[in-house]
## 1
Amino acid sequence: MADHYETLGVERDATQEDIKKAYRRLARQLHPDVNPSEDASEQFKSVTHAYEVLSDPEAREKYDLGGSGADFGFSGFGGFGDVFEQFFNAAAGAAGGGGGGRPRSRTERGQDALLRVEVGLDEVLVGTRRDLDVATAVLCETCNGSCCAPDTKPVTCDICGGTGHVQRQMRSLLGTVMTSMPCGTCRGYGTVIPYPCATCGGEGRVRATRTIPVDIPAGVDTGVRVQLPGLGEVGPAGGPNGDLFVEITVAHHDVFSRTGDDLLATLEVSMTDAVLGTQATLQGLDGEIPVEIPAGIQSGAALTIKGRGVAHLRGAGRGDLRIAVQVITPQGLSSKETEFIQQFKSSRHDAAPRFMKFKQGLFARLRERFHGFF
């Protein structure tokens, strides 16, 4: 059997990059689409065979052991662990029929993918849809996942006979035993691909960007992940897709904040409107909000607008909009305005500033009222 290193024209200490470059150079010269001669076809098979073995670190290590004259025995007492491991693996293979199990499948499930998406508070109020550009692995359109060049197909490995495993004799303290291990030629698949697809390099998939519409449900919050089954990467050899997970981050809003499904906001009210009371129409996240401010309202008072918060993630309905009132004391009064205020004060006979008597639960209510507002 020809030496795989000689076949590729590289040294035995060649790096994986050297091996890949050598294979690509020879493949361009010998590929049947470029060189239709029969000799080139056979050489291409040998080159591909050699590359499949040497490009896999594990298969290459096993090949180096066998190809360098190693007898798979032991020297001194350093190899006992490997000897016993191989012996019991061989025994297990014999108990299962002696073939080392069935060959590996080239088809595997694709990996899951994770995207992080920032959405506005207004978008999660009632839900939204986003079109996301995802760089991922998709099915190769040239080979449709077969990994083979057009009009070709995998062939049975002539080393393991399609079993995906090979058996070797090994001398040990227990005598001569048969060991079963994955075939280094086909890497346990039972077949080799003599003519890999040039588009995907024999992977059955390629990297591409695709646009995926994602429905972001109402009520999601930062850290929530939306699972989209089957929208992740396609697997090797056209295997089933993994899942796509979209992790949500809700952007900061300058006016509104959120606690649970309730929205919080602070409303500045002039002293005169606080004294006399008024009605106002405010712009909310989902349209106009009529607000009635009762006469005599105090700073720190809370107004509640039912059903104008965030939609419940599970279940029907929405939270509330809770508004903290802050009365604004006028500044920079004119002399006439100051005189008017003085007259108003004289007519009221209000008490002088003083500490209030402690009331159980007052500070707790204030903390709750102002939590998240400032």
Note: The two ends are 79 Å apart (CA to CA).
## 2
Amino acid sequence: MNTNERFQNVSVLGAAGKMGSGILYLNTLYISKLAINPENCNKCYTIFAIDRSQEQLNQLLKFTKSLLLKWAEKNIIWLRTMYAERTDLIENSEIIQAYLQDAMAIIKPSTRIESAFDSHLIFEAVIEDMELKTQILSTIKLNNPHNPWFLTNTSSIPIHILNHEANLEGNIIGCHFYNPPAVQKLIEVIELKNGNSQLSKLVYDFGKDLGKMMVPANDIAGFIGNGFFMRDLLFGIEKANQLKETFSFAESILLIDTLTRDFMLRPMGIFQLMDYVGIDVCQFILNVMNKHLQENIESPLLLELLNKNIKGGQLSDGSQKPGFFTYTKGKIETVYDYDKGMYMPLNELSEKINSHLGTLPENVSWKSLSRDPQKKEKMSQYFSLLAQSKDNGAYLAMEYMKQMKTIGKGLVKQGVTETDENVNTVMITGFHHLYGPINEYC
């Protein structure tokens, strides 16, 4: 069986979730292009979209169709070549509707794990829980007679652990999509040592066809993205703790968040990013890494916040749950003060924080530079001026950036990945940073 034949029957586990829905769309897009190719007219293609809630699966179909429609409208010329023999299709709208009908017919929603027992490829995107993943993968392995290949979207769990615990005989690969998978360019690929080379080729061919940027990571807990992010957040917490003698808890959190966003030209401050991901998710990833790494990676603060039911994360409509901050239309409104057990209005804290940090050396921001064709030159000038500034914010930012460089270099030294460039690519592409942590700015 060649790799394209494996795509004739695919299952996506956790298909209605935040990550699974995007992975289902990418599979539908990839497989529908195979299915409508006249060369494959005698082949049947099926994707089982598997999740627990039929209601969510119904919503998933609407979501997938809306994304396929946008893609079809942008690729009408190619679609015309695929439907050239259909003389009944004349207008662009007719071709698009025919494509949508053909593509959506491939998807078979299911609430039963048994649907995966006939699939040749299994894309796993359930929650980041090793026991659950192991249980599901092993169940499919035991009951599927086709020796299926598994692609797991885990962002932290070592692949060799899943392989061993689920007895997958090397037919598993880490295929870590970034959120949201439908638009994020990055996929971290984590191969087993002496794993299935054909499976690796399938993943890279799949990603290339979809226009993804594939970055290899070695099978070490956390991989590149979370390997960096978890150490970044721990350093941010450490710096906030060092400010407690001068600032309240809320002020310390706001100061470091402002520093890492505005002074370091990031899209979010480190504490807002924790809220976005979910404090509970961050804690789970830390637990996984702490279990499998020899260094101590943990945060008592996150545990204490979770004990107070402060979890962060997002609601189903995309709005932000309370975490370190509360939000109105995506903007920070209040800051949690652990000592007082309440949220403090942002406007009561900002003046003191801004006064302590000082002013930016130039009027630039992540947003203003993100699409600026001269961003490299402007960043170089900005960080040169930042290094010369005597303001507290400039000093703290340069200190923070030096630690980020150390963390990035550490990932290469520890064997998480082979090159500095891979670290920088993940942070720039996956986390939308303007620059990688391993740079000459500091």
Note: The mean pLDDT is 96.
## 3
Amino acid sequence: MAIGALTPPPASEIPSETMLEFPENRLLIDLCGEYDRNLAEIEQKLGVQIVRRGNQLVIHGEDAARAEAVEVLQSLYERLETGKSVERGDIDREIRMGGSDDGTGVRDGDQLEMFKGGKVEIKTRKKLVEPRTDAQKAYVQSLFNNELAFGIGPAGTGKTYLAVAVGVSMFIGGHVDRIILSRPAVEAGEKLGYLPGDMKDKVDPYMQPLYDALNDFLPGKQTAKLIEEKRIEIAPLAFMRGRTLSNAFVVLDEAQNATTMQMKMFLTRLGEGSRMVITGDRSQVDLPRGVPSGLADAERLLGSIPDISFNYFTAKDVVRHPLVAAIIEAYDADSQRMMAEKGARG
């Protein structure tokens, strides 16, 4: 049998792979992570296979998935070259954001030093905070660009966390003199009066998420000292009545549990040199039945005022455990189903 020219395999049988070469083996080790856990994370989320060969990574998979993996790996490697580390959250952010800066609504020249090169970074005493979704990025930019901003969406989307981070950043940068964090002390099925202790002991459990956020950005001793000096205040919404909040970064968390009058009272506390952020989740109102939410009224009444920003989040922006997004989507779907059934009966 004569030996003729080799017949190439069908295109469908040609392995789809892309090879990346990295000059610094030490950085490549950090990129891969302990036991290649970073590579495993990228493989799982993008549906590719990554094989390490010396100082090279070979990516197998569909064309689009390979291209996305290449972009993520290159971005993470560039991050390592600047001296930063790569954590699970950094991988999640690169995959979610995909290097796109479109649709964030940033005006040219606004907070240029914060958004240089399309990156948004919030510097605090303990860590550098970076948004992990496009909605988070737009929200952070709104907090720096507007004196009054709303962040509305489900739990786990970083509304309060990012607001406190921006507040700490502006405080240590000398842009404000104080940080004031507040929440309505509304019970979610439990009675405040039944808790032991004095008023502070009763209120502090409701404020704990705000303490937790602060402790992520400031050393514990410094936080305690600033609270003692009243340069950081954490107080229930009712304690804001009659005050004028000047030269302060003010956050109202869980605003869906403020009544209409409480919301009006809080918004009118805004003083000279201050920034105010209102965060809330319309699906978790704990007010008594029949009492309207001040957050909903604020959206309706203030939405057309140009100097007030409204940023919205969805389950796609959840940055907690992946199951949280699935839980939120399940509840949303059930709520829509019930509304459709109610409409059909009506």
Note: The domain at 116-313 is CATH 3.40.50.300 (Rossmann fold).
## 4
Amino acid sequence: MNYGPLDFLGNIGVVVLMVTYLMLQLNKLSSDGLAYSLLNAIGASLVVVSLLSNFNLSALLVEVFWVLISLVGIYRYFRLKALRSETLDG
């Protein structure tokens, strides 16, 4: 097995995902907060990048959906923030 820079990025991505999940379980992050979705998107994206060197379709599908779901969370965060702002201004 050849360990390269893309493998290293993938390992960082896995650590980001696991630490993010741990922080959620320890109530250090809120599941509807921006940080949770951003960290998930970043971690999964790093794993996707690592799959460029060692392709695995199943892993790619999981990580792409992880990124997409995280993007939904990011969208919802900003949408709710805008709605709250409109309510306070109106």
Note: Helices lie at 5-25, 34-50, 57-89.
